[in-house]
Design a protein that fits this description.
elongated, 5 helices, mainly alpha, binds fe (ii) ion
């Protein structure tokens, strides 16, 4: 005869699984937060230091992107807190856990180098978000999955916008209509 199951044991096991999932997803979100912070600082520095014939459009585009990153960083930190963990909040912590590289040379970069750098960073963060979405969906954690799906949309759109400047960088340099 099968021994009677103690419902408490099952609850403890369920709680343990839940808390280990929460710890795991909070760690992944902390990595995403750190990367987003580095990308935020980098994008803002490019907004300040970009030069060249596309200055106005890039200056504005970088500003739109760093503002979006700033809001997402806050939302990400608050999600980590809602899961029951403390959010990283210093440059020392961010650089330790981030996978993106910090940019220390923005004042001497060309606009093309800036665009290349940001395209690659958005690609990395999109992949990172996709991996954590998979983890969250398996556990039916819709709140985390929804946040990261919106981040994927942002990173994909940003890549498209940045890439469009790289595609034909001289198009915007055509003389105005009526001159030829
Ligand atoms: Fe500004």
């Amino acid at each position: 005869m099968e021994p009677a199951r103690n419902p408490t044991d099952r609850n403890i096991a369920g709680e343990y699984e839940l808390s280990s999932y929460k710890a795991e997803v909070a760690r992944e979100l902390s990595g995403y937060l750190a990367d987003s912070y580095l990308l935020y600082v980098k994008t803002q520095a490019f907004h300040w230091n970009v030069v060249g014939q596309h200055f106005i459009s890039l200056h504005k585009l970088f500003e739109e992107q760093y503002r979006d990153l700033s809001e997402a960083i806050d939302e990400c930190a608050e999600r980590i807190r809602a899961l029951g963990f403390k959010a990283p909040g210093s440059f020392a912590e961010f650089t330790e856990i981030a996978s993106l590289k910090e940019e220390t040379n923005s004042s001497s970069m060309s606009d093309r180098e800036m665009l290349d750098r940001l395209v690659n960073d958005h690609k990395s963060l999109c992949q990172k978000a996709a991996a954590v979405i998979g983890m969250a969906e398996k556990r039916n954690d819709k709140v985390t999955a929804d946040f990261l799906i919106r981040r994927q949309q942002f990173h994909e759109k940003s890549r498209w916008m940045l890439d469009s400047h790289l595609e034909k960088p001289d198009d915007l340099g055509l003389p105005p209509r009526g001159i030829n």
